[in-house]
Specification:
Length: 210
């Protein structure tokens, strides 16, 4: 049976409006508190949620643009770059552009492609500053001869059990898992099938795996 995803798309647009508000309010506060890492983390999570959710519904333009923003935000929250008025301005203008892209996905007028391309270049250039020698973007307290704590590799073990109604909302758990590959290196994955019922009692609209 084909699922009507329109109601779930409306949830996406409602949630995206909330995330956009979080990003915009956070960026305005960030101008006054550029060292607030909790605030940066909150902004990053909101952008990451928009990117992940847009991918589920095939809103490619939204996801690609948000990824550019997320890359710069990641550099800021990890201390590889510092918040400057210029960076805050780029992110605020990008947030306005992201609103237009989401409106276009909802049936509104598409934003100017030249504006999108220019902002993507500015975001990439700002994020690239962290990797330039002598850019002054090293975390505070890092010495030239010793690796900083921020650069030390970290490992995490993630256990996730999707809600069994996930398929009924038109969501694909594999998309969420694949998002992790953009945040780091996935060393291994394993599948828990302990809750899988017998074939006779299997409901194809329910998610049993974790």
């Amino acid at each position: 049976m084909s699922a009507d995803l329109s109601q779930f798309q409306e949830s996406f647009f409602e949630e995206s409006a909330e995330h956009l508000s979080t990003i915009e309010d956070g960026l305005l506060q960030l101008e006054q508190h550029p060292q607030d890492l909790d605030l940066l983390a909150r902004i990053f999570r909101a952008a990451h949620s928009i990117k992940g959710n847009s991918g589920m519904f095939g809103f490619t333009a939204v996801g690609q643009f948000t990824h550019k923003m997320e890359t710069l935000l990641d550099q800021l929250r990890n201390g590889h770059l510092s918040v400057t008025p210029a960076i805050a301005d780029i992110l605020l203008r990008s947030t306005d552009c992201l609103k237009l892209l989401i409106d276009a996905a909802h049936g509104g007028a598409a934003p100017d492609q030249d504006t999108i391309a220019k902002l993507e270049q500015e975001l990439a250039a700002a994020a690239g500053d962290a990797s330039k020698p002598g850019s002054g973007a090293s975390p505070a307290g890092a010495s030239g001869g010793a690796p900083s704590a921020a650069s030390s590799p970290q490992g995490f073990r993630i256990a996730w059990t999707p809600p069994n109604w996930m398929f009924q909302r038109g969501l694909d758990p594999l998309r969420l898992i694949n998002e992790l590959a953009e945040l780091g290196t996935i060393a291994s994955r394993s599948l828990n099938v302990s809750h899988l019922p017998t074939f006779a009692s299997l409901d194809p609209e329910l998610c049993y795996l974790s």
